[in-house]
């Protein structure tokens, strides 16, 4: 990155505003001038203007792109009524409608919805709820969680405690994080397409068997202190874009049942069609006890998340000493966010089945050439997710710039250059993304 900042905004930003996981004196950011459809208009730190396809969908949220007429209309309409009211003692149409919609579309008999203001907070609520549930069942000593390595569940303290202990932020906060029980990362799997277009899962069966025995042993050892199993179903996102076999999720469901634990699935990244199922849990036909959704929930317009639970969980908490789920954010069920979420979820329901497999097929087809590059270890795709894994950490500023010059926006991390594009990308957009990723990787790491 040049030190002379041609973009006035980048110069004002630098050293003043913190960016995610970035030092105050880190590389200067690109400035967004406009966002429309799947495109961002950017000014680079050196003052050059670019129009790029957003291959990240703004961290996996903007599945319908920017300025979508239906989402804009929903926001405007709600804004004309009221944008926010407290949720204590009050309710409103957008929240009730969204709760009806989410419980109807979720896997299994989800009966209750808690609205949170971000994904991390929804995970906090899910964990808290699990402790309350166990206490209500007369097992107050069950205060820990069983999870797998390689996970990511958010940045707040309880959520961090179930993130991967090595790649997560555990070393930065020694002593401050609750110590959870970690099973190994589930072995990698691939979702392959047969010539007739059928989806088949491939994995190392003996590794899966060994993993499953290890999980069972861990659960048995810690049974009396465990409240719940917490996991991202089938695709671990920010923890490494790692795909694992649905059978592993079934194993976790069985382990939870055997030891009286709740199964909490974190569908914040995987929900709403991203993996090629409406919810990734459906790959395993697993019905969770608790499910967190967020990210694409509002199509990327506003921050909103939700925790869904079964009637059994809701009933148990209602019959407990406290009777309530002990949480209540100020902006709980924000009407503006709920109104947009209703429009977004409706769009997902009517279009993901066409969009996601189409985007996925094109990503698989056009990312494949990256596999032949010298510093690429693997190319993998699932649903509308495409991942190129390198042999060493990505040179993020250089790959970002090479991608921008090719007309796409990516935000690589660790050894991964990946895309989770908006579902509304045209075939040409998807080709541009895939070819742009291959080209940028070849240019910088070739
Ligand atoms: C992004 C993410 C979160 C955290 O959501 P925020 O809205 O950033 O707090 C939690 N879990 C998973 C799986 C995520 O991808």
TrEMBL record:
CDD domains, A to Z: OAT_like
Signal peptide (residue range): none
UniProt keyword annotations, A-Z: Aminotransferase, Biotin biosynthesis, Cytoplasm, Pyridoxal phosphate, S-adenosyl-L-methionine, Transferase
InterPro entries linked: Aminotrans_3, Aminotrans_3_PPA_site, BioA, PyrdxlP-dep_Trfase, PyrdxlP-dep_Trfase_major, PyrdxlP-dep_Trfase_small
Site (Participates in the substrate recognition with KAPA and in a stacking interaction with the adenine ring of SAM): residue numbering on this chain: 21
Modified residues (N6-(pyridoxal phosphate)lysine): 295
Residues reported to bind substrate: 59, 152, 295, 328, 411
EC number: 2.6.1.62
Keyword S-adenosyl-L-methionine (UniProt): yes
Pathway(s): Cofactor biosynthesis; biotin biosynthesis; 7,8-diaminononanoate from 8-amino-7-oxononanoate (SAM route): step 1/1
UniProt keyword annotation of Cytoplasm present: yes
NCBIfam families: bioA (TIGR00508), PRK05964.1 (NF004624)
Family of this protein: Belongs to the class-III pyridoxal-phosphate-dependent aminotransferase family. BioA subfamily.
UniProt protein name: Adenosylmethionine-8-amino-7-oxononanoate aminotransferase
Gene name, Swiss-Prot/TrEMBL: bioA
